[in-house]
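Predict the assembly for these two chains.
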Amino acid sequence: MDLHTFTIRSLGEGFRKKEFSVTEVTKYFFDEIKKKDKDIGSYLSLMDEQALVEAKYADELFREGKASSITGIPLAIKDNFLIEGTKTTAASKILEHYVASYDATVIRKLKDEHVVFLGKTNMDEFAMGSSTENSAFHVTKNPYDITRVPGGSSGGSAAAVSAGLAVGALGSDTAGSIRQPAAFCGVVGLKPTYGSVSRFGLIAMASSFDHVGPITKTVEDAAILYDAIKGYDRFDATSISGEQPSTTEMDVDYIKKLVIGIPKECFEFELEKEVREGIEMAIEKFKKLGFTLKEVSLPHIKYSVPAYYIITPAEVSANLARFDGIRYGNISDLKSEISNLRELYEKSRGVGFGPETKRRILLGTFVLSAGYYDAYYGKAKKIQECIVENFNAVFDKKEDGVDVVFMPTTPTRAFKIGEKTGDPVSMYLSDIFTVPTNFAGVPSLSLPVKKYDREKKELPIGFQLIGKKMYEKDILGLGMYYEKN
Amino acid sequence: MSEKINEKTIEHLATLARIELEKDAEKNKKLHTDLSSILNYFESLKDVDTTNVSPTIGSALEKNVYREDKEEDVSDISLLKEQFPKSENGYLKTPPVFD
């Protein structure tokens, strides 16, 4: 049974045709993980016991003809999603012993369809980082070249899918944390419209930019998983109400009419030679497929990264105030005697948070302090508005706007482990093409330029298709069309 | 702006954020260098004229969200209580607020 190449779609068909059972497939994946994950390090913890119970139940559903399109699909879950009764660490020492007391809404939705959770994947601590090197537990390696990073912060999820250690995964994306690792690992990642997928039960980092989305092998799979997790949730105050149409059916006539805009600013940034070539290849392919492409302008995107690193730390400093060494379990290696509550807070947070988390909390505390608020936070929120306006203008049909914006996902291919850890600003710059859409709340899909050959040690390159708010069907449809032609 | 942060400021911020800094002078120097370089990086924002721009409020919804202010049954909270490091006779226990 070579399940390595299976997708959500094809695995589901195999289950229905009784080619293999969910239990067999689940066992296959745990065998694969045992064999291969010591080299990759994509998982932080495995859920083998629960998975086999769930697999049995899913097999029952197939026998009774009650299974859905994702029943029995083995998925990996980033370790910042709460699964009741399961350890959830966000790759932080401060949550080393935390066991989630409830299910995230997306987890609940997937449980209702009886998917199989294989385990929790590695990430940058509290999703802060672009390489998964900020995990308090271990470094995850890129399946295409184990001397390189898988990207981050959803690096474990992307690496697991890329290495065939899960068929799909959930990730979270605050500045590109789904799309950048997807690009580095040669898989597909979707950051949906802000408000289309609930964040209830996702450990919050920067709430105004946090998004939940799928990481999969194909665009079609991303659409299937997105359809399964989207929808209004009263427990997330930013959730958008109303019916959301299915995105899995590709309407070719509609897709072919979409006008694609290419921001001229993308080529003003320093792009690695291979990335530039890959991006040009993708543009050529769209031209050959007969699409209308036109140059557009997003003049403020170059300011998105510095503005992001003001607004996000500000939110981080508030969101992470809840981690006090009490409510979410204690720190085991707190050696000295604690005499009062304040000392417990300071020591727990001092030992429990890693360097990047501390940097951001301190930075956030600084930019929000009296006297600096206007110069930093106030200014950054205005820059955000400029970027929102940039996207509004580009998509404005009255002004001859486009339907979809095309952009590279990252300025470079996967970099070497350790290459950027010494210099936070250079690490932050890997988010240059992904941050703008988190500012504007518009959906963005990252997909590989082509199929990459692991044997030849080729490093994958991804590009983004960015759509109007709630127009996931445009970017997913266009992505499916690109992928199938 | 880069002069606005020195090691003393960092100590103050750490106190406000309830984080005990490391005892290692090298590591704290690195923290200072990192924070200074990040703050320098923000300088480019000064180039943008934002005189007539209002800051972004919310990213998707233009309306506020309300719900009834009424009591609701929540799921079993025993798992939540188990996370507490110490408890006694059903009460959750922390170190004293004052020495």
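Chain B has a mean pLDDT of 85. The CA atoms of residues 12 and 88 of chain B lie 36 Å apart.
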